[in-house]
Design goal:
The structure is a homotetramer. Chain A is 25% helix and 23% strand. Chain A is an alpha/beta fold. In chain A, strand 6 (108-111), helix 3 and strand 7 (152-154) form a beta-alpha-beta unit. The longest helix of chain A is centred in the middle third of the chain and has 15 residues, at 158-172. Chains in contact: A-B, A-C, A-D, B-C, B-D, C-D. The B-C interface holds B 12, 62, 64-67, 207-208, 281, 291, 295-296, 346-348 and C 12, 62, 64-67, 207-208, 281, 291, 295-296, 346-348.
């Protein structure tokens, strides 16, 4: 009954197994993007989509060239046990209890909140019984093996994805000068702020404007970045400054990295690390938001600036905050958890 | 004859002296802004406005609540000798020869190109006879006394203005860690790129996009910044990365400054330096482009980030690139050169 | 005490009389624009500014080249009796009772809501005691004499201003074909929707989008337009279709007028009617939003389309919805009510 | 050799026949969109892509989740004879000669210029030998049978598509009042103006602006609309007024239709006509650009306005100007010409 008619795939999926996928929190931007990706995924069917305040209404989702009307049910009506995997796209703090319920129901979970991530978004609170404190951090380019087959995965923050995929090869290669400060200026489109109407995100306040926010190392994503950098072997200090762009989607991170030794080819560390990654693109020019919007990629460029006494690498990293920064990476993780082709449903 | 009827000020200027002002290169964004400021200035009259390819047409300028149609004449028709002061808003490289002509005609000049600035925009070429190699750098907040009464002034670059006004108090106070790297991520509205139609500045290429350009310390403004920082006593390396915003006007610079000693009040160095500056605003929150558009101010905020081993100051500096970053600062300089009130014509 | 220090005009107002002006509802876009115009008006001082939910906070207002912090008080604290004139910029339906209080306190009022306008925004309700049912409709270009010296004036709606100023000369001259349909497609910037955060006005919903709303003759402004057209002698049917633009400010109305007789000069009716109007501009090209933003003008263009059996005039009318469409016209009315120069404070 | 490696479809196209498709004029917005659609089409391979001034460079095209680098060759190098079908996306006036060459080479052609359309864009010139004066007008919803199997098809203009698909059911049903004026206000995103850099399409001139252009029935698309309306049996006069929006993509047409008889259900004429059309969507709310961007659909809403003596229907029609308004409809036509499923390659 909950396996909606709109999900009768016309694609010739043949005898491929189909997985029933639920979305908790489908009315937000990430939730909506998840529904679209599920509806377009050759091996997924949308089992349910929940929304707290909008239950009973329908969500308009564009997928596979059509507009789908997805019925939104209340979270308590969700058939957790009947789903093969659930995406939890709930507010930070509210997510962990639903992860616990899904685990108790025997269902796999990809949690898009910060609740299960390393550093826990800077919040120290007890997780509900059954929720692991060390859920795999779902950034396949760095931690693929821990995601494969996992039952619970913490999906990374959008800023963290753009920054850690760019920094990881440098950290692993010992290229970041010990004890140095890595300074990061990121800029994000407004969809990163979510769908709740707030004055500062209204058109007239955002258009023709640009400003920083969450400065001074106060942003939630800093904690998962710090924890991960340590795991990757770097003791650098991160200085992270997000900005709000008058665009809908996309994050560009501009990263200043003091090097432990000079480089002659700015892209060399990335070529070695990401030669076979389906969702990392290297460019000898500079990545722009327009290159990555609506795509599940991290696009990286790098430059060796002239006239510096301290060898320094300038790295640019662009993603779509709702795709590789949220729903797309979540599907990538789900594919790995279910043993599917990692790129399934992410090539459109 | 060239003292246009449209300049019959209705303001009660009384017995105040009126200066005849010319604009060389009035068809660009800076030139147009200069015309508007001159038309609204209580002691200026617009003596001529030149344009190379658009000579013979009129320029529509909004000033003092009205729309003015300014006739554009060819540069060779300009009555240089009859003007009290000329603004040269010509392309880099083409400006110096016109500065020489104005000097030869006995006229004061504010040059908005990089030709006369410290570092000369990175270009090493001989200046025409009569053009000084050491023209005062027209940033009154730093070099007021050298601008007062000067006959030739080099108007600073827009990025340089946003950055140097922010860095100068730190440099003068010895607060920048010796030998350190000051990393600067700036973002500018499209008007900074000028009026010449280019594909990369068309609406469809800029809207919903964001990207860096001129990276790796290759931007023209870097040279005047480096030279000025040395004069101010800092030996830091600057790493300057400009970005292109999907907005019309404004520059926000986000500056990471390694400190030579810890600070307890992020704004303290700026309060001491800028207590009496009419065109510098300090804010305990964060400056946004919307705060400064169409105004001749530098708006500065600063934060001491947490969790850093190296004491670090994060400085934010916002300007309107066409006003404090170009035409407004040029009028500020002209006021000082002519012995007028520095704020005349800049309070609208 | 309520005559704030920030209002010590530095302008040489000499011996000119100064009027104490209050703003009821200062936190909306129109209220904020009113505060800016009052602060920049040579004969006005801001006596108080009220806000319901934001009382106790300050409102940042840019006027006369500076940023002012205007204290917001609760409406019940407003010194109505001590003000010479009050602008009521309150929600439709909530305004009339405050107009009644101001009248009872002996204060002049310009009401920016639809409560007192002809047609009353389509709402049939009793007005409070003392509030006139036939307050002058404050569109000076059409009804100047009834506004001069009036104690209560209904300020027109923004769409109505753009449309009626364009249609009035045609109606008065009998140029609109009797019984015909005048079809009006208007498009407005988002600021017309007010400051209350709503999902449909968030950046991501407005940017890159365009849509109609309030269609089928259901918009509140239709009633004052219909009533006024009848007063001007036309029996035409109006078909009014507003649209929402991805811009901050401005309204462009594109109006198809069936003519009662052929014209040879599309602008002729407007030239005759508006030769001496300070705030109406005629253009032989087409008016654009960029021509009128931040200015108190209606800019009108007109074209006689080819190939039509029915003689038809196509009229284009552009205004800034917050200036000539709201606060600017309100100040224009206040000037007339107080016997001041109609253009005072509106030339910046 | 010209069957590029980038076109090795990974889709399981099985034993389906593959057609070699050429694009003349691939560097424009329509040409680029055509390349993307061809690369994502299960039965098409991209045989060549030409560009006059950019020959020798590569075109970056996003299709099927990847970025493709398409080599651009000069038009004279194009293997016309080896292609099964050619899309001509060349400037108006320059296209007909290439259509003639393709016809001479025995290749099918879809011409996206106005050269072959009914009315010929208002230009009366001789077509080259072999080019038909009565090529089928490729709007399948109206003229499907004449497109099926055709060797040459004139692809409609973008505005014409949005308007004619909306008006055709009314014209065919005799619902448009005889001799009446149908007034059309359309608004288009900037991509409709093409890729050639012009001052009026630069970001700073378009953002925060809105204006009409090509008014007074002077727009090229009017001619094909008039001709088609006559063919559909209506003698109405069209009054067509296009406007320029500060968005990238999309056209919304707002159409006022005087009716020959009253209607009770605004959508009824459209339901009857378009019940089985794969690319026409009807909505009981109002179509917005966001509903149709990047999709090959015409989305139609309609309203019966109140208070009108003349029965009137207000119709809203939204399309993506580059998809259903250009490249998507061209592929739809190509599918019909080649006997393929009409929706092939258009469901992404």
């Amino acid at each position: 009954m909950q396996n909606y008619a709109f999900n009768m795939h016309t694609l010739p999926v043949g005898s491929q197994p189909s997985y029933r996928i639920g979305v908790l929190g489908a009315s937000g931007y990430s939730g909506r993007e998840l529904c679209a990706l599920i509806l377009g995924h050759p091996q997924f069917s949308l089992h349910f989509a929940t929304a707290h305040s909008q239950k009973g209404s329908t969500l308009r989702v564009r997928a596979a060239g059509r507009v789908h009307d997805v019925p939104l049910i209340g979270p308590d009506e969700a058939d957790l046990a009947g789903a093969d995997l659930v995406f939890a796209a709930l507010p930070h703090g509210a997510s962990a209890e639903w992860v616990a319920k899904a685990i108790a129901a025997g269902t796999r979970v990809v949690d898009l909140s910060s609740d299960l991530r390393p550093g826990h978004g800077g919040v120290t609170h007890a997780l509900p019984d059954g929720v692991p404190h060390d859920a795999p951090y779902g950034m396949p380019e760095l931690f693929r093996s821990s995601v494969q087959g996992a039952r619970v995965v913490a999906n990374p923050g959008c800023y963290a994805t753009s920054i850690l995929v760019a920094l990881a090869p440098l950290a692993k290669a010992g290229l970041i000068a010990p004890g140095s400060t890595v300074s990061i200026a990121s800029a994000s489109g407004v969809s990163g702020a979510g769908v709740t109407p707030k004055f500062e995100y209204m058109f007239a306040e955002v258009a023709e404007n640009f400003r920083a926010y969450g400065v001074g190392n106060s942003h939630r994503h800093l904690f998962e970045m710090r924890d991960t950098m340590q795991k990757l072997g770097s003791d650098c200090d991160l200085l992270f400054t997000p900005h709000l762009l008058a665009v809908d989607r996309g994050i560009l991170s501009t990263i200043t990295v003091p090097l432990s030794r000079p480089l002659t080819d700015a892209l060399e560390p990335f070529r070695a690390a990401y030669a076979n990654e389906p969702f990392v693109e290297l460019t000898t020019s500079l990545p722009a938001l327009a290159d990555v919007q609506h795509r599940n990629v991290v696009r990286i460029g790098a430059v060796l600036p002239s006239g510096m006494r301290q060898p320094t690498l300038l790295v640019f990293s662009a993603i779509d905050n709702l795709v590789k920064g949220a729903a797309g990476q979540a599907v990538q993780n789900a594919n790995l958890m279910l043993g599917l082709d990692e790129i399934a449903g992410l090539q459109q």
